[in-house]
UniProtKB/TrEMBL annotation:
PANTHER family (alphabetical): METALLOENDOPEPTIDASE OMA1, METALLOENDOPEPTIDASE OMA1, MITOCHONDRIAL
Coiled coil (residue ranges): none
Transmembrane parts of this sequence: 111-129
Requisite cofactors: Zn(2+)
Bound cofactor: record note: Binds 1 zinc ion per subunit.
Pfam families recorded: Peptidase_M48
Molecular-function GO term, any one: metalloendopeptidase activity
Family to which the UniProt record says this protein belongs: Belongs to the peptidase M48 family.
One Gene Ontology CC term in the entry: membrane
Protein's name in the database: Zinc dependent protease
Organism: Leptospira ellinghausenii
Length: 398
């Protein structure tokens, strides 16, 4: 506590830009400023803000709506500044319980405060994003269909469909076996002409297979495994859950950072997210959930569960440039086509063939009984399925 200690000081009265030079006498909770022609007697409680400066400290009086708040600058050592701040904080803490909490936090070590703040943000963020999962339960399935329908139009304008009687028969039989009996979704499958070995689903239940996946598949099991995986994405509403999470994240950032809410930019951002999120690469958690669900669908129908794993193994080889294909020209054409449609297909890929994911699949397949049914159509129909779009390409090139 200061007892009649004097410091060099200056006082800004909030009206003139020229400060009054003088001295300050600090005694307990009282501060007396004296200049050549002015005398101010103030108490610590009158100061709203306290900050350290390179020459001492600066105290700001309670704000005045009619003029600038008066400021008192005191020139002193760092130790004296810290003692003055301590007196000021103790005074503020005695004013109310909320003030006591706020200024107790202010007194904390910056490192400890940083760790505590990070912990609080992490906990709040965890429950916030967990809460977003429940929001989807209140969104009707009609929204999934509407959003999927809008994207379906865009996709079919970009790619040529080449469905055949064989592909229709194959996927019709496969859907009968894989789709859960209590499903609320209506599924429809189309084949798109592209050498890219991939597939993706829209939120309205429309599933697209690139012909490259059918042409390169080693067996019906592979295609059935991929189909089960895409059905799981729709059944688990991953598109809508992704949209809610993305929108929730955008909203949280807007609330924290500030811009966007006042001029409706947030709604524009949300709309932009919605137009792409429907076929966006899913998160690791959603992919794992789809993998687990697909295995459950297949096992419940006594169908083979090895196909999806074999598909990923083949994709891994392709990614590493170790494809078993001997037709180098075809592989080159596939790469060229992928580069030309890169803007569309980059975000359509829902099958990152990672080692970790294949290990998860292996553990899922090993649990419980393995399915025995490996075919849904005859070998002759399957051969026609595998040549999907090839006849279309040949006739197109003539």
């Amino acid at each position: 506590m200061f007892q009649n200690q004097t410091f060099t000081s200056r006082y800004f009265n909030g009206v003139s830009a020229v400060p009054e030079e003088g001295t300050v006498l600090v005694h307990g909770q009282t501060i007396q400023f004296t200049s050549f022609d002015t005398h101010h007697k103030l108490t610590i409680s009158q100061f709203a803000e306290f900050s350290q400066t390179h020459k001492g400290c600066k105290l700001i009086l309670l704000p005045d709506e009619r003029k600038e708040s008066p400021i008192l600058e005191i020139f002193c050592t760092k130790e004296e500044t810290k003692l003055l701040e301590k007196i000021w904080i103790q005074n503020k803490k005695s004013q109310s319980h909320a003030s006591a909490l706020f200024y107790s936090i202010r007194e904390m070590n910056p490192i400890v405060l940083g760790i505590l703040s990070l912990l609080i943000v992490t906990i709040v963020g965890f429950f916030y994003f967990k809460g977003l999962e429940f929001v989807t339960n209140f969104i009707p399935l009609s929204m999934d269909k509407s959003l999927g329908d809008s994207v379906e139009l865009k996709m079919e304008a970009q790619f040529q469909k080449c469905d055949t009687k064989a592909t229709d028969r194959f996927f019709s039989e496969a859907l009968k076996k894989i789709v859960p009996k209590d499903s609320k979704h209506k599924f429809e499958i189309s084949v798109l002409s592209s050498t890219i070995p991939n597939a993706f689903a829209l939120s309205n239940g429309k599933i697209y297979f690139f012909s490259g996946l059918l042409n390169d598949a080693d067996s019906q099991e592979e295609v059935i495994g991929v189909l089960a995986h895409e059905i799981a994405h729709v059944e688990k509403r991953h598109h809508m859950r992704n949209l809610v999470k993305a929108g929730g994240t955008s909203l949280a950032i807007s609330l924290v950072v500030g811009p966007g809410l006042g001029n409706m930019e947030f709604l524009e951002t949300f709309t932009e997210i919605g137009s792409t999120i429907l076929v966006l690469k899913f998160s690791r958690d959603f992919e794992t959930e789809a993998d687990k669900s697909s295995i459950e669908y297949l096992k419940s129908q006594n169908m083979s569960t090895d196909g999806l794993l074999r598909f990923f193994k083949r994709m891994e080889k392709l990614e590493k440039g170790e494809s078993d294909s001997e037709d180098n020209e075809e592989v080159s054409n596939a790469k060229d086509e992928k580069s030309t449609t890169n803007q569309i297909t980059d975000f359509l890929s829902t099958h990152p063939a990672t080692t970790e994911r294949m290990k998860t699949l292996e553990s899922l397949i090993q649990k419980g009984k393995k399915g025995t049914i490996k075919k849904v159509v005859s070998d002759s129909i399957w051969k026609e399925v595998q040549t999907a779009c090839l006849d279309f390409k040949n006739s197109d090139s003539k």
